[in-house]
Amino acid sequence: MDSYFADYRARIDLVYIEPPLAVVFQQNERRAKPVPKKVIEHLVDKLEPPTWAEAHSLVLVG
Hints:
By secondary structure, the protein is an alpha+beta fold. It is 39% helix and 16% strand. The chain is built from 3 helices and 2 strands. It has a two-stranded parallel ribbon. The longest helix has 10 residues, at 37-46.
């Protein structure tokens, strides 16, 4: 957990929501300027969900 927040005794609660990829592509197609599909696929491959080390509580959805 980030020591900056620990200095202030802040409580960090994370809720990580990952929609189905099909939904991401559908929403992207409705954008005024859609992001190229290859770009989205590349970013999804690099995506790292948060870990317990980053928060006091963690909820993973999706």
